[in-house]
Input
Amino acid sequence: MLQSIPREDTYLHKGLRKQLIQILRDKKIKDERVLAAIEAIPRHYFLDPAFERQAYEDRAFPISADQTISHPYTVAFQTQLLELKKFDKVMEIGTGSAYQACVLAELGVSLFTIERQKELYDHVGKFFYLRKYPNIKRFYGDGYEGLPSYAPFDKIIVTAGAPFIPPKLIEQLKPGGIFVIPVGEGAAQKMLRLTKDATGKVTEVETGDFSFVPMLQGKNK
Ligand code: SAH
Output
């Protein structure tokens, strides 16, 4: 899976990525910086070499520990909702393969990402491509707790389906901040975009239906 030895990014891969960008445009992803980040990142690096070509189809794939790398559309949609600015301090829950993390880092933010599965956390630590992004800080922990010692954050993104909005994550959002989280148990989740105003009041908007692996409680060894 994620490998310590650099892999190749050929003209074929770059061509397939251009086609993927067109698919994302057709699905109404409009933020040019998000599209440029996805075009820059070799998604096939994050998948088993057996899936090289399919890496640029708009579909999710299995990674280790029964988890998945999200659809490119889902990654693009969530990233677009965050309205990122360079140097934003961002927390991600659910590092997984670190693909979404790299898309965020490519946009110049300072990223703090948490994974509860030790196997995945260790795996990503050996992944050669992460050396490109010193602006990613990784943590092995429980996303329901967030990272109180690094809070507050300008933006927060959850990449697993949460049964409810974790209150500690709302606390760790800055006034003026944006928090994107898929909420719901079972097969489908509603993507929520929460904003906190200067007085601390939180407003919630529903933006569509998605399907994620569940956000689970506690760490897993
Ligand atoms: N962003 C990832 C998506 C991975 S799937 C990517 O681009 O590949 C969701 C991930 O969330 C899984 O790796 C899962 O282990 C992790 N996860 C689930 N519940 C969590 C929690 N409470 N804290 C941290 N990570 C969690």
